Amino acid sequence: MHKYRLMINPYAIENWVNDMASQGWHLKKFTWIRFTFERGEPGDYIYRHDELERFGTHYEDDYLEFLKSSGIEQVDRSGNFIFFRKPSNEGPFELFSDKKTKINNLSKKIMLLLFIMLLNLFVGLTGLSGIFLGQHTDTVRLILNSTDILVVVLIAIPLFKLMRVRKNLKKELDVYTD
Asked: What is the spatial distance between Cα 129 and Cα 135, in angstroms, rounded to a whole number?
């Protein structure tokens, strides 16, 4: 079965994948928008995600080998985003990304979304300003510039959710242990 969901908030996606697993649908493959599930026993696995450095590090292979030796199975990888799973009868598990790394990854996503949002806002308002200045504007340009403004609104929602997740992680950050 294929499901489509835009992967912006990795923690919400992880919760959704675990909810699907509790219903007997186990993640097999994924991209940034398409998730493939296969039927299995409900609640067989617990899923976790991790984000590795985009261009790899010399620690990446060691980290993945360590997880494998711990009984954690790598399900699939799309870019630097990886899903892992472990049988639920072995109890809950956590991955070893510290909060600073999680905050840094969220900050990168926030900056990208903010850039896209501001670019669309600039293009949309610049194009629409011709209408207010009495310049002739064709229908196609009006639709495209209005779409830019709509994109700003659609990006703002996940942007603020990511900012809230990052804020909560910062509150939990323990300077001495993280």
From this structure: 9
Tally the C-alpha atoms within 13 A of residue 8's C-alpha that lie toward its C-beta. Answer: 17
Given phi > 0 = left and psi -120 to 50 = alpha, else beta, which region is 145? alpha
Radius of gyration of the chain (CA): 21
Asked whether residue 22 carries a pLDDT value surpassing 90, the answer given is yes
Q: Report which residue type is found at 18.
A: N
Contact 50, 66 (CB under 8 A): no
pTM (two decimals):
0.69
Give the separation between CA 81 and CA 87, rounded to whole angstroms: 21
Instruction: Report d(CA 15, CA 13) in Å as an integer.
Output: 5
Tokens of 63: 């980290």
Q: Hunting for tokens 């997880």 — which residue is that? A: 67
